[in-house]
Amino acid sequence: MIQRRNKTLIAAIIMACISGGMLFPAYGAERPAESYTRMHRESSSSTVTVEETHEKSNRTTTHSDISVQTPSASGMGAVLFPYMAKNKLPAPVQSLRKTVRSEYNVNYEQGVLALYKENGKWGLLGTDGAVLLPASYKKLSYAGQGVFLSVKGNKTVYIDKTGKEVALPASENETGEPVFYQEKGRYGIRDVKGNVLSEPVYKEILTPFSEGIAFVRNAAGRKVAIDHTGKELFAVPYDRIFPYHDGLAEYQRKINHFNWGLLAGVLAGSAVNSGYYAGEIEPLTYDGIKRGYIDRTGRIVIDSRLDEVYPMTAWGTFVKDKGLLAFVGRDGKYIIEPGRYEVGPGMMDDWNGMVSLKDKESGGLGVFSLSDGRQILPFQYEKVDFLGADRMFLKRGNQCFLINQETGQVVREWQKMVNITPYLEDSYAWCQIGKKYEIIDAEGQTVYTAPEGGIKVVSSFRHGVSAVKSGDVWGILNSKGEWLIRPQYKEIEIL
Description:
By secondary structure, this protein is mainly beta. It folds into 2 domains: 39-173 and 243-494, no CATH class; 174-207 and 209-235, Thrombin, subunit H, CATH 2.40.10. The chain is built from 3 helices and 41 strands.
C-alpha cells in the first residue's frame, strides 16, 4: 500500500514541520497515503459565551434537476459528469492560492530542497543533492519566507539556509493596522508611525486589530469591538473571541478544554502570511469546540448553539443539528441542505470547491460542489480521493478511475485496486498496483516502473522529486526514476 508522510507547518508559535515520503523494499506499512485536501481553517489566537440570536438560513436548494452519470464498463474516456465550469473562487480562496503558490518555490529557488536527519540531528540538502547545512540541529522546521526555526543545544533561533541567525519573518501586521501600547496598566492605540489614536483607557486587549477592528475590555470592564479611533462598535458577550478573517470572527462558548492540536498542519507560509491555518492533509472532523461566527457588525452568522459547528474554511463550514449535517456558506446560508451525511478526513477539496459526503443510508460516497451545492456524483463510490492538479480518484467495486475534475472525464481506468499518492502541485504521482510501483503523469500514463519488491514507502512528488525509503534509510528519486540522492539518511522531508 502506498505510504505518505504529512507535511505540516505550525505557525501559532511560528513553528513548522514538513514531512516527505519514500521508495524501495515493500515490507511493512508505515501509514497509508491519504487523499489530498487543503483544509484552510481560520486561525484563532485569543479568547469567548453567551446569549445569541439563533438565525436560520433562508436559502433553499434542490437537486431534482441534477443529472449524474456512472462510468461505463470500459471507463476510459467516459464522462462521469458534464463539464463543470470553474467554480467562482471566493476571495479567501483566491488569497490563499496566491499565498501558497508564492511560498511553494521559495526554498527551491534559493537552492534548498529538503530537510534531512542523520545521527539524530537535522540539516538541509540542496537542490543538487549536496549537503547545504550539516546535520547539527536537534530540531529544524520551516517557518516560511525562507526562514527556519532551529533548536541547537538549549538555544532556539530563526536561521537562514546557511545557519545564520535571522529575524522572524514579518507578519502581515505591516499592512497599516494600528497597534496597542501600554501605559500605567492601561492600553491605548497608536498608528504605525507612532501617532496616538486613543489614550490608554482599555483594561485588556482581547485581539489585535484585524480588518480595522479589535476586541478589548473597556474601562468599565465590558468586552467590546472598537475601530481605529477607539470608537466602540458593539458588545462581544462571549467567553472567547478571535480576530477577523475575510469578514468573519470566531467566537466560542465557555469550554473545559481547547484542542490546539487541530491547528497543526499549515502549508508553507500561509499561517505566517495570511492568517489561515492550512494543510495538505487536514482532519475534517468536529473538534468539540462550541463555536460560532459573527460578521463585522457583530451579527451572528453561524450560531454556536447548533449541535456542532466545524472550523471555518474559505468556502464556509459544516454544521450539524438534530443529527443532520449541512454545509453553510460564509454568509450563514445553506449551500448543501441538511441531510443524513457523514464527512471526515480527506473528504474536502476547498482548493477547487468540492467535497465528498457519505450517505448514512446507503453507505456510498458522493461528491458535491461547495459553490452551489450541486451533487456532482451519486452515492455509489467506496472511495473518493482529491489528488490535487485537478485530479480525483474513485473506486467502485473492482473499478478504479483517475478523473479530470474540470471535465469529469475518466483519464485512466483500472480493473483492480490501486493506490495513488496526491499530485499536490506537481505533475507526477506514485501508483501502486499490488506490489508494483509506478510513476504516472497527470494523464495517468506510466513514465517509470520500479523494480518489484524494492519499495517500502513513497511520498508525493514535489519539484519533480519524491522522498523514497529503501530498507531503513531514505533517498530522493526524480520523476524519471533516477536517484538524485541514494538512500542513506534516517529521514528526508522535501520542502
